[in-house]
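Q: My labmate handed me this sequence with no annotations at all. I'd like to see what the chain might look like in three dimensions before we decide whether it's worth expressing. Could you predict it?
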Amino acid sequence: MSAIANHRVLTPVLGVGVAAGVSALVMIGDPTTPGGFLPPCPTNALLHVNCPGCGSTRALYSLLHGDIPAALHYNALGVIAMVLIVVAFVMHVVGLWRGRKLRSWQHLRYTPWIALAVTAVWFVIRNLPFAPFSDLKV
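A: Here is what I predict for the chain of 138 residues:
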């Protein structure tokens, strides 16, 4: 197998393999029940605030079980990020197979700044101690 063909096959296979391994670990670990082997969020454990990623493992667990409302409850921004990552991965793989890079959302000029701003706003609003924002704590 040539180096180019190897690159076009190996990268997607490794990506899917890592995603499958993480998904299997989350399925086995069941982060929705306390006392499992998956560690809690260190930010929440040490500082008692919800970081932007708090609840993402539980959201992934819910998504793997097809429970979208529960996943959105645990971390709505995390669910959106997971969807965007899957879209970016698919676009990357299609670009590899076609032999040319395909432009997607992550190639837009202001994507990093928008992602940073959205993450910062999510961090602030999910830690506000009054309704309706207090319902965003997990």
